[in-house]
Amino acid sequence: MTVENGQYSELYEIIGYSFKNEELIREALTHPSLEGAKNYQRLEFVGDRVLGLAIAAWMFELYPDVDEGGLASRHTNLVRREACAKVGEEIGLGDFIHMAKSSEDTGGRKRETIIADVSESIIGAIYLDANYQEAEKFIRKFWKDQAYNVKVAKRDAKTRLQELVQSKGKPTPNYVTVDKEGPDHQPVFTIALRVKGEEEEQAKGKSKREAEQNAAEAMLERLEKAWNVK
């Protein structure tokens, strides 16, 4: 079911919240491919911060015997794109997003990055329409299973790579953006990763951060094999 004519009653029933300002929920559900309309990016910015705070406080409450590193690791796993997308898929957000037919025809309604972004924009919209408590209620409802079963996150590839090369006396790896393709709302970045004395590694991603992590993963795998790191 695709939302039309501003009718959101089905979504309100699913998320357990009804918007007073329907313009906010429309903005939260509007993809950047609809030029000239307010899209979800600004609300996603707000939602990301609200989610981060709510999860941090929740982890402090749920895991009283876990140290800072353990809390931070769990927090990372719960605010990452995959966790947000899982919530969005549970809600069925893909059916409610307003987007250009060109984006819909290329699978936009099922794209993980879009579903994750809209999950955060919904949080931002609830926060602005009501208050922090309502946004937190939404988060605790839909992140509950993940929060109670969250694993300690493995350190990211960039951090592990930096530690590895520095242990060999080499300078910090250098990441350079060498290309950006696609429209502004769906960019693809190419990052070149350089480690002194080693062959360059390049990787793509939907954000610079993702491309850097992909390049670091590839470089790390190669160097660990070359240097017999276990």
Explain what the structure shows.
With 230 residues, the chain is mainly α. The protein folds into two domains: 9-148, Ribonuclease III domain (Ribonuclease iii, N-terminal Endonuclease Domain, Chain A, Orthogonal Bundle), CATH 1.10.1520.10; 157-226, 2-Layer Sandwich (Double Stranded RNA Binding Domain). Helix content is 56%, strand content 9%. The protein has eleven helices and three strands; from the N terminus they run ααααααααααβββα. Strands 1-2-3 form a three-stranded antiparallel sheet, with helices on one face. The chain is globular. Mean pLDDT is 92; it is low at 1-6.
Shape: globular
Overall number of strands: 3
Beta-strand portion reads 5-15%
Helix content: 55-70%
CATH uppermost class of the largest domain: Mainly Alpha
The radius of gyration computed from the alpha-carbon positions, rounded to a whole number of angstroms, is 20 Å
Number of helices: 11
Helix-strand pattern: HHHHHHHHHHEEEH
Q: Could you tell me how far the N terminus lies from the C terminus, measured between alpha carbons in angstroms?
A: 50 Å
Low-confidence runs of at least 5 consecutive residues? 1-6
Q: Main beta sheet: strand number and arrangement?
A: 3 strands, antiparallel
CATH architecture of the largest domain: Orthogonal Bundle
Q: Name the CATH superfamily classification of the largest domain.
A: Ribonuclease III domain
List the domain count as a whole number: 2
Do you know the CATH topology of the largest domain?
Answer: Ribonuclease iii, N-terminal Endonuclease Domain, Chain A
Rounded mean pLDDT is 92
Identify the strand order in the major beta sheet: 1-2-3
> Which structural class do the helices and strands define?
mainly alpha
